[in-house]
Amino acid sequence: MYDYTAFDAAFVRARVAQFRAQVARRLDGSLTEEEFKPLRLMNGLYLQLHAYMLRVAIPYGTLNPGQMRQLAMIADRWDKGYGHFTTRQNVQFNWPRLHDVPDMLEALADVGMHAIQTSGNTIRNVTADHFAGAAADEIADPRPVAELIRQWSTDHPEFQFLPRKFKIAITGSPNDRAVTRAHDIGLRMVTRDGAPGFEVILGGGLGRTPMIGKVLRDFLPEADLLPYLEAILATYNLLGRRDNKFKARIKITVHEHGIDAIRDLVEAEFPRRRAAFGGADRDWLAAIAAQFAPPAFRDADPAPYHAARDADPVFRAWTDTNVAAHRHPGYGIVSISLKAHGATPGDATAAQMRVMADLAERHGHGALRISHEQNVILPHVPLAEIPAVHAALRDAGLGTANIGLASDIIACPGMDYCSLATARSIPVAQDIAQRLDALGIEQAAGPLKIKISGCINACGHHHVGHIGILGLDRAGVENYQVTLGGDGTETAAIGTRAGPGFAADEIVPAVERLILAYLELRDGPDETFLEAYRRLGAAPFKAALYPESEPRKDRSRAA
Amino acid sequence: MSRPFTPQVVTANALVAGDVVYLTPDGHWSRHHAEAELIEDPDRAAARLAEAAAQTGTVVGAYLAEARPGPAGPMPVHFRELFRAQGPSNYPHGKQAETRDV
Ligand code: SF4
What we know:
A: 559 residues; Sulfite Reductase Hemoprotein, domain 1; six-stranded mixed sheet; globular; B: 102 residues; alpha+beta
């Protein structure tokens, strides 16, 4: 766990004091909303549909129990007793009052947290594999590098006014759990002849114009990372479009100029940047890495775990989905589902936050993670203690066994909260999960990712859902468009639109038909939905979505 | 040829609490859609919006939203405005949780 330096702490405190004064000046009328809005956005404060929303950064999704408890305290004291974990590994509070926000930020600063750079045209919160430092399939823990990037990018004077926001994701594993191909820059740790480095992927992104990132460098030596990132950002800063917000992201720059032209510019800039760095970043990375040293793993006998699996089918089913392989023998990675059937994806009550904090402290070396799939991870739990963890989670309503299954749905806040939304997404997720639970088919259906966004901005990652759902406003009525075959992993693909959209009361039956059709179509239980889709193509799935033959008309009440 | 004018209400978010408010006939801000002034004339709509927009110490982001007459006062037309008038659908929070006589 990275501890803030005195410099970081002073910086965050100064920002809180500054924002407190800005809020006071807004309230006494000395600042207009036009003047205040950019200031509040810089501090993570949005005005949403029903209230303000405070977005708090959780860099690379890593939290300690004290921080989780502080989030619970903030939820109880200044909000409505819960927090919403997002697809950007952030947490959002949906109901703060403007005059309380400085106190909330102060409380966050007390535990080394803040809401800086969760907004604006800057380099945003760096995201990382939520299994970092624990996964059995990992080359190296990517978080020291993520932290280095965070420090380098925070308040970087050259990059505070980029053409548009900029998102970086990093993974240390060949199995990409960080959706690196759908970020402005994706970094995948690789080795060449034993030397560590990165594959640098550029220009991915979802939203209005979804793009899978392209390889800018297949191998960048680890030591060159920051100067190379600076060369990319500097190139984008000059070349990126500022005339049209919808064409300003680097994916469009790459699309318009071509990856080869961008590469030439970056490579030309790179030596200048490297000379300016002079190696200071290397010493700093080493200092950071020391703080991410793995915990003192014990050698615990895993026998109680296996005995519990044999004795208790409920526990067994939960471990099948929610426990992943750990790099250290005798340990497991526990994913806590925030997707109880019918619950709001990503929401945790203050009481649940405290339970998770306690479990991390008692059984998990004090480590907690937030995944972009809106779940909470205990990355380091001795197998022998997992039965106790499971029992405590069940008591807290956190024992749902559905990680990676169809009801483990990503959904953005949609029109229940978000002022940009064109339709709701949360009720669709709730209804699909409850329907699947009632049918009892999700265990049989196996790994299946459903992702829902409430508008084209695609915060719910619908383009990379095996089944993606996009909520739209069609002539004043909510309408849901389905995409098929998306994939956010190392075999990334943008889903293809299946056909006309569905009305709100038609979307759940449509998803049900799709899943039932897949169960009929698959080769056997080992062939996943995505594999079956890739083998068979879209046609049989479209036939299930649109069963009546002629005429094929738009299914929405209003076209 | 001009379309017939659709009745509108002036709505915004309150500066401190951030919640949805509506401009009433007597120029106050109400938290209830039904208490809004249903404006049936484009010139008056523009004038009321300008008045509202000037109140930057009270409200944020004033705009005109379509509405129609209802038994107890104006009602929202678009579903977005209906959600704004009620609160989120996943919890009984926001306006739906509150009694009318606040
Ligand atoms: S996808 Fe749209 S509706 Fe959903 S959170 Fe993002 S901006 Fe809001």
